[in-house]
Design brief:
six-stranded antiparallel beta sheet, alpha+beta, 31% strand, four-stranded antiparallel beta sheet, 3 helices
Length: 172
């Protein structure tokens, strides 16, 4: 999952990825900037979630690039590389909120669980946009409107939740 959250300028800094060392990270940042330019004036919430899944879901070049570059970042070790609860629940700040990201922060979260997994509780003062990046088909993130596989969730401003992930096994 790549989490894109708009934060107030001057928020407490957290280390981000060193873009001078990771070419793929620079590519991810550029695609996020392309995406932010298209959605910066849209308010997170149910309507935005529906809009993103309809217009920017799987098959859309921005979504497909965000997924591919995030997966590559996990493989290369610079995305979702900080353990939160062992190696199966990790995250990292890709970019701090700054002018070039239109004051969105970019965070990568990795959850590897065969069972339903509950991560940390967090709030969304300004709302949040989550690009659900599946490493394995069948993985879903619980959004404010229910479970979401490949696509987007977008909790609105003032919401809060636990990160919930599940893995569905499909029978052929």
């Amino acid at each position: 999952m790549t989490d894109m959250q708009q934060e107030a300028p001057g928020s407490a800094p957290v280390a981000g990825v060193d873009f001078t060392k990771h070419h793929t990270a620079r590519q991810l940042l550029q695609r996020c900037q392309d995406f932010f330019a298209e959605v910066e004036n849209l308010t997170p919430g149910k309507d935005l979630e529906t809009y993103l899944n309809r217009n920017y879901g799987p098959g859309n070049s921005i979504y497909d690039d965000l997924c591919s570059l995030t997966r590559k970042g996990v493989e290369e070790g610079w995305a979702a590389n900080i353990p939160i609860d062992g190696p199966h629940y990790r995250r990292s700040k890709i970019s701090l909120p700054k002018e070039e990201t239109r004051f969105f922060s970019i965070t990568a979260v990795y959850v590897d669980s065969q069972d339903e997994f509950s991560g940390q509780h967090h709030s969304h003062p300004y709302g949040e946009i989550n690009c659900v990046v599946q490493i394995d088909e069948g993985t879903e993130l619980k959004g404010m409107q229910g479970w979401q596989g490949a696509g987007w969730t977008s909790p609105g401003p003032g919401t809060h939740q636990y990160v919930l992930v599940r893995y569905l096994i499909y029978d052929d």
